[in-house]
Amino acid sequence: MRFLIFISVLCLTAGCQSDNGEEENNENITLLTLDPGHFHASLIQKNKLEGVDTNVYVYAPEGAELETHLALIKQFNNRVDNPTHWNEVVYTGNDFLEKMIQDKKGEVVILAGNNKNKTEYIQKSIEAGLHVLSDKPMAIDTEGFEVLLEAFQNAERNHLQLYDIMTERFNIYSVLQKELIHNDDIFGEIIEGSPDNPSVIKRSVHHFYKEVSGNPLIRPGWYYDVEQQGEGIVDVTTHFVDLIHWQCFPEQAINHTSDIALHSAKRWPTLISKSQFEKSTELDSIPEYLRKDWNDDNLNIYANGSMIYSVKDIFAEVEVEWDFEAEEGMGDTHFSQIKGTHSTISIRQDKEQDFQPKLYIEPVDEQAFSSLELEQIKKGFDSIEEKYPGVTLEESNFGLEVNVPENLIEGHEEHFSQVANRFFKYIEDGKMPDWEVANMITKYYITTQALALAKETSR
To answer: If you average pLDDT over residues 437-441, what whole number do you get?
Structure first.
């Protein structure tokens, strides 16, 4: 049965409201949120977005995922400091995708949810003449990559913008790592490396059960199904591949057919018990679609993966692991290293750093810097201090630590609106840089090809 529900989530803005719950205003971009199954969809709206209509049209099936999304939006509207004023107008018919395309109430589709459907949503939204801002990953296998490639081609033909949400580009530690490796006095030139000794390394450990905005994160059951969420090697790795290209080859288009060589890839499972699954999802049984992964009283979730590839003859290693929950006092870990002729620039986030990211300039030979090297580094660091006031250097066990002042550090959740604002600027300009499109295509080519290779190797 088809039905329409309009929900106004604590509308605090002044102005008239129409009979269907819509508020009148003259902003120039209207958002369409499609099937928001992941909390990243709501984080796009955590802050006010300039030039964006406060009416947001949501098209989704009824259920806990929609309720969670609307509850987070309401939380943003209700907060004391800098409350938002979103008015969510919601349609929950079974034909929600077709209804969104038919209504065409806005210009920009926001996607964050089940990755099995995401590539189809992208394709159909572009075909309908809508811009798309999508959470990662936009494709989870080689078949999906081909559909995504066609969507990019359609977007170009129809002057539409298709973009993925790469929040890590706004992380101050990633930004400063990029600045440092392009400072000749500090870094020199990036070395080529080899498959056994890659010059660029990105690794991280994540956890299924954790808190977001102060509350336990409840995962949908499908999050544990790699056929719907995607394997680990095609998920978080999108951030790492994106950062490697963005940092090492800024504003350079990377061709997936001529600039990339994939050397190895592997995958392995995380074991999740029934009680852990229930704690994470608040479901009281294992869904039928996960029975294929049930073995020896555990779910075998292929959430872990690694790959070694070269880009423009520079060798890179990417690895992601997922555990269920961090031990008391511990958290996610992150390691990012880029090796140069004068120094190695590393981001470390482990027990020694109290699980908080720290940025280091490290000697190439793992010995202490000579006085001459220190003098050269400090000379090069002058331009960093000038561009980022408050950033300082001090000696550490790893060489030199780059101290980052609190005013430059933002939480991960704040980066979503920054990505959105950049995307809206691309829409305003009528075009995004060619290197952005080329590098998105290359990124998903690498991750989906790595999955195919890892599956073949494991067989």
So the answer is: 98
